[in-house]
């Protein structure tokens, strides 16, 4: 199969700054701004260590994907690589599972939009806000990719500047007492309330599931490869820069938050960022941060829908999805693939109506197990890709560090995260759904093969 086929019509309009911000937009969303409240309850101040461990594994996964994306920059990314280096069935499963993952991620992002709006307008039902946002973001995704990239760039800039501003303000509180009547807060909150490991090492281990969910989205760099203006240059830059920036934002932001506010007083629902500034008596800052976390959720949903449309388009070009999903509008956007993905995301609106309290947790559990399947696929395919390159003697332009040990360590880590999920009641149900989903994909592949023959 010609690996360049997926690029014949998709526009190459994304610059390096667009690609970096798309990846940041996908990864800095509800996981940090909303889900981190639950993670803090699990690990306490030691959550910063959890983010560091998770970040190292993410770096290896990103470099594994980058090694292949620089060699073959296609829209559809690792589904295409799985198809090429592992086989038709893995390629089929990888593509559809990635699509499923970002439908669920989109649902998770939409499900919390209403929570943020309720901070200002408590009488508006969460499902109404979710529906309104779904319509607006879907419209945005039907315009040309450069406009999308520009919008996502500014969406992400808001988040990044807000986090930097919050870190600077937090450090000012810690050192100079600004916002605390001139009394320096110090950093004793990091160990005064039960120690740095208030729930022991087990708390850190259990928190890894939510931490890995938070990092979901960084692999969007690979999805954008087919629309990058200069992939040989922009993909390596984006991958290397995005990883350390995310680590800085997660560890820096959470470190500051837990230094200025006791971890055991953070509520499990709502954004801890907003909670803290409300508690310390800075309502204007709390209002501003609520706007930021609302923007973050919209940005992450925007990135999710973008990747869904491109993955479904790639599947159609491969012959692994109906051909009409490969249809582009006059702006070069995969319109039918986007609208189909949106139709599935409407389920989030329905579940937000039926069970608004636990809706985020449901989607987070499903998103975590599906993203782990995606990441494991990337690592396995990279191992096969490298063997193929060694056999043919072809050069590798962007090598994964510590190969192959880094790939094996990352695969073991992902297996451990799945085992941890089995011990968390609210997340365990996703382990029952995953085999059913994979079996459904296997049957779908067999039906497709039978129809072709």
Characterization of this structure:
The protein has one domain: Up-down Bundle (Amino acid/polyamine transporter I), CATH 1.20.1740.10. It is built from 17 helices and no strands. It has helices at residues 16-27, 30-33, 36-43, 47-71, 78-85, 88-120, 126-141, 145-176, 200-215, 220-223, 231-260, 272-279, 283-318, 335-354, 359-392, 405-422, 425-452. It is globular, with a radius of gyration of 21 Å. The model is unreliable at 1-8 (pLDDT under 50).
Radius of gyration using CA atoms only: 21 Å
N- to C-terminal distance: 18 Å
Tally of alpha and pi helices: 17
Inertia-based shape:
globular
Helix content, binned percent? over 70%
Q: CATH topology, which one?
A: Amino acid/polyamine transporter I
What's this entry about, in short?
This protein has 17 helices and no strands. It has helices at residues 16-27, 30-33, 36-43, 47-71, 78-85, 88-120, 126-141, 145-176, 200-215, 220-223, 231-260, 272-279, 283-318, 335-354, 359-392, 405-422, 425-452.
SSE map:
Layout: H1 16-27, H2 30-33, H3 36-43, H4 47-71, H5 78-85, H6 88-120, H7 126-141, H8 145-176, H9 200-215, H10 220-223, H11 231-260, H12 272-279, H13 283-318, H14 335-354, H15 359-392, H16 405-422, H17 425-452
Helix pairs in contact: 1-8, 1-11, 1-13, 3-9, 4-9, 4-11, 4-15, 4-16, 5-6, 5-15, 6-7, 6-13, 6-14, 6-15, 6-17, 7-13, 7-14, 8-11, 8-13, 9-15, 9-16, 12-13, 13-14, 15-16, 15-17
């Amino acid at each position: 199969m010609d690996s360049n086929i997926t690029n014949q019509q998709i526009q190459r309009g994304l610059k390096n700054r667009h690609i970096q911000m798309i990846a940041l937009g996908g990864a800095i969303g509800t996981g940090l701004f909303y889900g981190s409240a639950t993670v803090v309850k699990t690990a306490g101040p030691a959550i910063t260590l959890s983010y560091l461990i998770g970040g190292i594994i993410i770096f290896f996964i990103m470099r594994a994907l980058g090694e292949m994306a620089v060699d073959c920059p296609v829209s559809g990314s690792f589904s295409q690589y799985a198809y090429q280096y592992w086989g038709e069935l893995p390629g089929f499963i990888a593509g559809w599972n990635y699509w499923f993952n970002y439908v669920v991620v989109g649902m998770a992002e939409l499900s919390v939009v209403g929570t943020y709006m309720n901070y200002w307008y408590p009488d508006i039902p969460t499902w109404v806000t979710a529906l309104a946002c779904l319509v607006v973001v879907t419209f945005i995704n039907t315009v040309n990719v450069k406009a999308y990239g520009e919008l996502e760039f500014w969406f992400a800039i808001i988040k990044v500047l807000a986090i930097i501003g919050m870190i600077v303000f937090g450090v000012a509180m810690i050192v100079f007492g600004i916002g605390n009547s001139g009394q320096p807060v110090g950093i004793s909150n990091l160990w005064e309330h039960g120690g740095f490991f208030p729930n022991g090492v087990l708390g850190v281990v259990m928190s890894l599931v939510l931490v890995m969910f938070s990092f979901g989205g960084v692999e969007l760099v690979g999805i954008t490869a087919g629309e990058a203006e200069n992939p040989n240059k922009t993909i390596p830059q984006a991958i290397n820069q995005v990883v350390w920036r995310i680590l800085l934002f997660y560890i820096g932001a959470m470190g500051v938050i837990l230094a200025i506010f006791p971890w055991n007083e953070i509520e499990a629902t709502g954004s801890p960022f907003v909670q803290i500034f409300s508690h310390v008596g800075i309502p204007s800052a709390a209002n501003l941060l609520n706007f930021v976390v609302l923007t973050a959720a919209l940005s992450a949903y925007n990135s999710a829908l973008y990747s869904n449309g491109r993955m479904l388009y790639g599947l159609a070009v491969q012959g692994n999805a109906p051909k009409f999903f490969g249809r582009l509008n006059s702006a070069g956007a995969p319109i039918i693939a986007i609208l189909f993905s949106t139709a599935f995301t409407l389920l989030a609106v329905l579940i937000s109506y039926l069970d608004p309290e636990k809706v985020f947790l449901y989607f987070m559990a499903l998103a975590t197990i599906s993203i782990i399947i995606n990441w494991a696929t990337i690592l396995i395919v990279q191992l096969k890709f490298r063997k193929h390159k060694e056999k043919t003697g072809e050069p590798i332009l962007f090598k994964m560090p510590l190969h192959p040990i880094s790939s094996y360590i990352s695969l073991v880590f992902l297996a451990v995260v799945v085992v941890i999920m089995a011990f968390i009641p609210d997340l365990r149900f996703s382990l029952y759904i995953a085999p059913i989903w994979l079996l459904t994909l296997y049957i779908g592949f067999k039906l497709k093969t039978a129809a072709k023959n």
